[in-house]
């Protein structure tokens, strides 16, 4: 009786072990490409439905690798996305230290810099002030790709040669340089605002080049197509106009649906400078559109 019970117990244990082995084999088959009862992970790039952003944006092209030291500086649309995605050491010497020093020395107004390619506490404070002015995050005073890209564009937009490309008359004119992604306002041949950075429409939604006039203004405008509020709205063609954006302006993978996006302080300033009937000149072409 006892012997029979032991035999039965051993047989049952063997059966359990056999089932477990079979289960392991099935799981292994699933991992090797066979059918598995476990749901497959979402494909790369898939994500849950996101909430409606304040400003509707469209994805652009993937970022390009940054050039090593000594090669060409980044263009207006190859600047990195929000810098906080990569650990940054406050006041560390940046990859484009000398480039930024030279440009900030040309621009002036942000503090003194030593043009030697080496970071100093004074250089760091000056670079940080420039970063805060143009909404570059984090404003740690490092000469990173975004900072050197913005500085290059502002310097280029400050030259008389570039300003003449706008074709502004003696009347008040807002000049939007689509190639450099900058804007400034001129009156009587003099710059009265800017230059500063913008973000225009990306591929499939490019901001058109041409001469237009401000035909609608509102401190807050509701967008029916995208169901968002557009602060400091100034329409100049179709459904396209100037307005503040609350997304990170320096993410080169993003673009508007044709509008000219501005940092808050610039949206307020340009709203104050312009008026109904003011001329808007958009020229050049955003790379990638």
Radius of gyration over all CA atoms, rounded? 28 Å
Biggest sheet features? 5 strands, mixed
Strand content: 15-25%
Shape descriptor reads globular
Mean pLDDT level = 78
* Helix and strand run: HEHHHHEEEEEEEEEHE
How are the strands of the biggest sheet laid out side by side? 4-3-2-11-5
Structural class: alpha+beta
Measured between the Cα atoms of the first and last residue, the distance is 87 Å
Separate helix tally: 6
Helix content: 25-40%
Total number of β-strand segments? 11
Poorly predicted parts: 1-71, 76-84
Please outline the helices and strands.
Blueprint: H1 2-31, E1 58-59, H2 97-107, H3 121-133, H4 145-157, H5 160-164, E2 173-177, E3 182-187, E4 190-197, E5 210-213, E6 216-223, E7 228-237, E8 240-244, E9 254-255, E10 260-262, H6 264-273, E11 279-283
Parallel strand pairs: 2-11, 8-10
Antiparallel strand pairs: 1-9, 2-3, 3-4, 5-11, 6-7, 7-8
Helix pairs in contact: 2-4
Q: Which features does this protein show?
A:
five-stranded mixed sheet; 6 helices; alpha+beta; 289 residues
Describe this structure in words.
By secondary structure, this protein is α+β, with helices and mostly antiparallel strands. It contains 6 helices and 11 strands. It has a 5-stranded mixed beta sheet. A hairpin with a 2-residue loop joins strand 3 and strand 4. Helix 2 runs parallel beside helix 4. The N terminus is likely disordered.
């Amino acid at each position: 009786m006892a012997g029979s019970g032991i035999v039965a117990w051993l047989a049952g244990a063997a059966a359990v072990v056999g089932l477990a082995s079979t289960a392991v084999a099935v799981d292994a088959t699933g991992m090797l490409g066979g059918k598995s009862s476990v749901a497959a992970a979402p494909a790369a790039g898939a994500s849950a439905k996101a909430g409606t952003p304040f400003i509707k944006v469209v994805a652009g092209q993937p970022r390009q690798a940054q050039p090593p030291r000594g090669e060409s500086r980044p263009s207006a649309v190859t600047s990195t996305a929000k810098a906080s995605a990569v650990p940054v050491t406050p006041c560390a010497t940046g990859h484009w230290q000398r480039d930024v020093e030279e440009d900030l020395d040309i621009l002036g107004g942000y503090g003194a810099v030593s043009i030697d390619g080496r970071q100093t506490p004074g250089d760091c404070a000056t670079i940080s002030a420039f970063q805060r002015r143009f909404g570059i995050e984090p404003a740690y005073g490092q000469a990173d790709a975004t900072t050197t890209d913005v500085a290059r564009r502002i310097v280029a937009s400050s030259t008389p040669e570039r300003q003449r490309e706008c074709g502004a008359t003696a009347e008040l004119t807002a000049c939007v340089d689509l190639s450099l992604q900058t804007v400034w306002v001129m009156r009587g041949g003099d710059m009265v605002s800017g230059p500063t950075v913008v973000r225009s429409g990306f591929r499939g939604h490019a901001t058109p080049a041409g001469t237009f006039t401000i035909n609608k203004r509102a401190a807050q405008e509701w967008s029916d197509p995208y169901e968002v509020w557009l602060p400091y709205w100034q329409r100049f063609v179709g459904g396209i106009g100037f307005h503040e954006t609350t997304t990170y302006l320096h993410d080169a993978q993003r673009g508007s649906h044709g509008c000219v996006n501005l940092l808050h302080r610039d949206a307020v300033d340009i709203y104050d400078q312009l008026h109904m009937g003011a001329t808007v000149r958009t020229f050049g072409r955003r790379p990638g559109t």
